[in-house]
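Appendix B, example 12.
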Amino acid sequence: MIQIIGSIVVLVCVVGGFMLEGGHILALWHPTEVLIIVGAALGAFLTSNPTKIVKSAFKGAIAVIKGPRYKRDDYVMLLKLLYDVLVKIRKDGLMAIETDLESKDGGMLFKNYPQIVADPRLMEFITDCLRLMVGGSLDPHELESLLEMELETHHQAAHEPGYAVQTVADALPGFGIVAAVLGIVNTMASLDGADTATIGHKVGAALVGTFLGILVSYGFVGPIASSMNHAANEEGKAFEVVKMALVASVRGYVPAIAIEFARKLLMSDVRPTFSDLEAQLKGKLKAA
């Protein structure tokens, strides 16, 4: 929602300031300039990116409006799930979770966490990590190194749509100049017999092309790309939490301490306090 408010503020301040200076809003309305700039930018975007990034970019731009994917309650749920898993492993051994890992919905191990099961990428990461622990004899350093490489790949893929949109934002002022040059060419071709008003209108239209390219770049597309990258960073934090908890467990820490290591990775705005999380875990144990 704040992204929508920000875009409205940009539009109102720019257009409102122009009108307060005595400008007429219809002087900025030139559909052909919009067609040249937006069409060229879209075409360049489609040409320079594979289909999967194009789709992810549009989905990511829409998702920006919805706000962060993982909120405080989601992280609490993730930490509780990891605690359950680590407690079960400590009590019954690694082989006790093998059947649950082979189940598509996570079996009994994940039955109380439908939100996490509904996130296929996070679910896949958790189960793959646990399979490494069950089926391999990796020491903590090997496991941590392997998970770091996987996280690096995930983060790179998560940021690619934002980088692609930022490239379009960087190119938009150039396409605005293209529209302006075409407008000047059109003006030059119309000089013979044209009156001053007609020439002024065409020159104004050409200048609007430059204006639109810069405004759309720095006022809208660039901020969207930045928001997408912020969202990718925030989403990646959930994967880092999983890695930290499991690596700490393999190093021999008890579940409560391993979860505390993971909790410390979270930003202050989404991180539950130690006492809050402890109360959640103790409440779960009492309920069990």
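The radius of gyration is 27 Å. The longest helix spans residues 196-250.
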